[in-house]
Amino acid sequence: MSHTKLSDREIKVLLAILHCGLEAYAPKILDKLFEHANEKLSIGALHSALDRLEQRGLLESWMGEATKVRGGKRKKLIRVTGDGQIALSHAMHTLNAMAEGVLV
Amino acid sequence: MTNEEKISKSWTTASYDELADELDRILSNDLVDFPYSQEDVRKALWMHGLFEAAKTSKRSGQELLAKDLYHDLDILKEQAPELRGSGKLSLLFSILTFFNSENARRIIPILRHRLIPTRSKLADSLLLLVCKADDAEAATGDLLEELEKVQSRHGKWYCNFWFFWELSLLVILKGRKKLTKSVLGPLADLWKRKSS
Questions:
Q1: I need a labelling partner for A27 at 20 to 30 A (CA). Which of A76, A83, B34, B147 fits?
Q2: Residues B131/B177, Cβ–Cβ less than 8 Å
Q3: Residue among B93, B76, B84 at smallest CA distance from B22
Q4: What ipTM goes with this model?
């Protein structure tokens, strides 16, 4: 299925969202990306990736409550959908299958 | 309605033009012994205009400042019994007393400075050009949250540079589709029409 193909960055972003748990939003995802993959993304690049994944139905988002931090702006909370989980496991499985029997 | 309530009501609803008209009437009819110079009046009314602009602005910082200013004004009104009464005349005196006071002179530069758009407002308005309101709000919030981290790590100068750089990237990336549609779309149409 062509629509479930994920790029390297998309895989990392999806995994970072899963690491965040229930409260996944952009700055937290950036932190997780840096923590686990040592990758520094700009907010624009992350938002662009998130928008793309959402359009493909791999993510869903909703607006959280307004808090005093962040200049009183609401957070856009993100969750990986069922399709997203399937696409991710498919991508991971493909990588593992490719790596099998090869010295890396 | 008490006199004080009437004053506060007229204070909040009177416009700059109404006050200027009232001033003209007072000066032309020589109704009262007027202790202020034309220059004082001009400055006070200008400050009042600035103040009203800040009051009607949606920025919370300015609202708080406006509340502080009004609180100070109430205290001044209590301290000057001759200013009590109803109508625009007393209102005008209140404005003059207040905006010619040392207290106001200290506050006005801060107020004027706060009228310059904040980072939050700038990011909001630019992002609203290219994406939906919810997206713009969330993206601005994300940017501000990251900005705090950058400021604590690298200091003020770098954080200013970082903010403008990230904001431009965000606007370009968020508005990529819109820009393509609105700029390249008509150009492509023009090209097609010319070639056919």
A1: A83
A2: no
A3: B93
A4: 0.85
